[in-house]
């Protein structure tokens, strides 16, 4: 089984299901395909840029493809997707047809500004769960036939250290923490369900990154975060399914 992966621009090294080395995606007769949600800005855009530069066939989604000029300029395939809209998700699956997908990166996410309990806006919390948790569930279910046709069979859900129950000693960030903890649990369940089919399903913490969500005070630049995550993905084998990784290549506590 082809295990080609790279979340951010390093040379691609792949491992088969039984540990055999294979060549990089760019040297294959047909390039591997990655689908990235929320690809029009931030981490999703940088994922798209680096995978495209590495020779992958990149499919990037955006709610408004007509406004995703920077993404289109990369030469990738831009497709419309609202992860909170079931009809939009089903339309994406129909438009993809029988296209094999080697790697799915569920990247779309939002961050409600609710630091303390009195500050909670429940409509905001509900939308956060729709985007951060239910969205990846919708997309993964809809694209599972495409992922089964792919060789790598990789599903990477972008989470956060704020989703770790073990590491939550400071509280705050209501809604966001819960949405990412639920995403983590979804990924563990998915890993158990698909293990026998050779899938590798993981969650990754990109770190605190300078994006619209992370803000200008964040210590990490997007290219560095993505390069780190790609390096982790490159090394994954099916034995890693159901694990939680940092962009620095360390396993994190649930």
Structure description:
- The two termini are 29 Å apart.
- The chain contains 6 helices and 9 strands; from the N terminus they run E-E-E-H-E-H-E-H-E-H-E-H-E-H-E.
- Helix 1 crosses helix 6, helix 3 runs parallel beside helix 4 (122-149) and helix 4 (122-149) packs parallel to helix 5 (176-194).
- It has helices at residues 42-53, 69-73, 86-96, 122-149, 176-194, 222-235; strands spanning 14-15, 21-22, 33-36, 57-62, 77-80, 103-106, 154-158, 200-205, 244-246.
- The chain has a single domain (14-246), classed as NAD(P)-binding Rossmann-like Domain (Rossmann fold, 3-Layer(aba) Sandwich).
- The strands form 2 sheets. A 7-stranded parallel sheet has the order 5-4-3-6-7-8-9, sandwiched between helices. A two-stranded antiparallel sheet has the order 1-2.
- It has 254 residues and is of the alpha/beta class.
Topology overview:
Blueprint: E1 14-15, E2 21-22, E3 33-36, H1 42-53, E4 57-62, H2 69-73, E5 77-80, H3 86-96, E6 103-106, H4 122-149, E7 154-158, H5 176-194, E8 200-205, H6 222-235, E9 244-246
Parallel strand pairs: 3-4, 3-6, 4-5, 6-7, 7-8, 8-9
Antiparallel strand pairs: 1-2
Helix pairs in contact: 1-6, 3-4, 4-5
Q: Proportion of β residues?
A: 5-15%
Strand order of the largest sheet: 5-4-3-6-7-8-9
CATH second-level architecture: 3-Layer(aba) Sandwich
According to CATH, what is the class?
Answer: Alpha Beta
Query: Shape, please?
Result: globular
Structural class: alpha/beta
Q: Level of helix content?
A: 25-40%
Number of separate helices: 6
CATH topology assignment: Rossmann fold
The number of domains is 1
């Amino acid at each position: 089984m082809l295990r080609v992966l790279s979340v951010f621009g390093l040379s691609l090294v792949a491992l088969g299901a039984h540990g055999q080395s294979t060549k990089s995606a760019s040297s294959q007769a047909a390039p591997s395909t990655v689908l990235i949600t929320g690809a029009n800005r931030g981490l999703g855009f940088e994922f798209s840029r680096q995978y495209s530069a590495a020779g992958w066939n990149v499919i990037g989604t955006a709610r408004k493809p007509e406004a995703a000029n920077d993404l289109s300029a990369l030469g990738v395939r831009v497709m419309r997707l609202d992860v909170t809209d079931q009809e939009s998700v089903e339309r994406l699956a129909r438009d993809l047809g029988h296209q094999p997908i080697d790697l799915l990166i569920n990247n779309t996410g939002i961050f409600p500004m609710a630091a303390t309990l009195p500050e909670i806006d429940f409509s905001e919390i509900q939308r956060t769960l729709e985007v951060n948790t239910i969205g990846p569930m919708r997309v993964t279910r809809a694209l599972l036939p495409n992922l089964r046709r792919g060789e790598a069979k990789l599903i990477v859900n972008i989470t956060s250290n704020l989703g770790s129950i073990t590491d939550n000693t400071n509280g705050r960030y209501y809604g966001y923490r819960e949405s990412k903890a639920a995403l983590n649990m979804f990924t563990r369940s998915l890993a158990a369900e698909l293990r026998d089919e050779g899938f590798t399903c993981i969650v990754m913490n990109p770190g605190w990154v300078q994006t619209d969500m992370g803000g200008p005070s964040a210590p990490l630049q997007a290219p560095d975060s993505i390069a780190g995550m790609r390096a982790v993905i490159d090394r994954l084998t099916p034995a890693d399914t159901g694990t939680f990784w940092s962009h620095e290549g360390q396993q994190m506590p649930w």
